[in-house]
Design goal:
mainly alpha; Arc Repressor Mutant, subunit A; 7 helices; 2 strands; about 55% helix; about 5% strand
Length: about 190
């Protein structure tokens, strides 16, 4: 339930289960790129790096870009739109997927530039559950291929499996089994 002011060349990122309500007294025009979690899983992205990016973006969902940066990001989105308007051929889906992956990488670069120019004076205080959830996601990005038990992640965080599953459900709105589609309750 936060309010953001969006102006020309604002990059606004919101994740799953977010609700957005726009209020404007003027004509509002935006370029929007939206895709499902399933689609994201099919993209060829470095999961660990992208997960870190999305964790940071959650703290800074609304970023003012310089005019050239906004135009550059718009060019990526226009390329995707142009490709979607073409008749679907053998490689059309692959082209769109790779263009979206490139756009995500571009967002990463723009975000890194933003963070370099706007360093945080102090890490903002998070409540304990948010800190545990972040640590869980970091562990998950490092170990999801080998470790699939809640016990492993809870033990690594020095909390009980029941407490970890409660935190995950409370913060993400999803049960622990939905995270990385392979975590099992033990």
């Amino acid at each position: 339930m936060r309010e953001y002011r969006i102006t020309r060349n604002t990059m606004f990122i919101f994740g799953p289960r977010c609700v957005m309500q726009a209020r404007s007294d003027k004509r509002f025009k935006a370029r929007i790129l939206a895709f499902s979690s399933e689609f994201m899983r099919r993209l060829t992205l470095d999961t660990k790096r992208i997960l870190q990016l999305f964790l940071q973006l959650a703290d800074h969902p609304c970023i003012e870009l310089r005019s050239a940066e906004g135009e550059s990001l718009g060019d990526y989105i226009r390329l995707i739109d142009t490709e979607l308007q073409e008749p679907e051929l053998q490689f059309s889906r692959d082209i769109v997927s790779e263009l979206i992956a490139a756009t995500i990488h571009k967002v990463g670069n723009l975000f890194q530039t933003y963070l370099a120019e706007h360093p945080e004076p102090e890490a903002r205080m998070q409540n304990r559950n948010e800190a545990y959830f972040r640590q869980f996601l970091e562990l998950l990005s490092d170990h999801y291929k080998k470790e699939r038990s809640v016990n492993f992640y809870a033990h690594s965080l020095c909390i009980t499996p029941k407490y970890l599953t409660t935190i995950i459900k409370c913060i993400s709105g999803k049960p622990v089994s939905n995270h990385r589609s392979g975590i099992k309750m033990m």
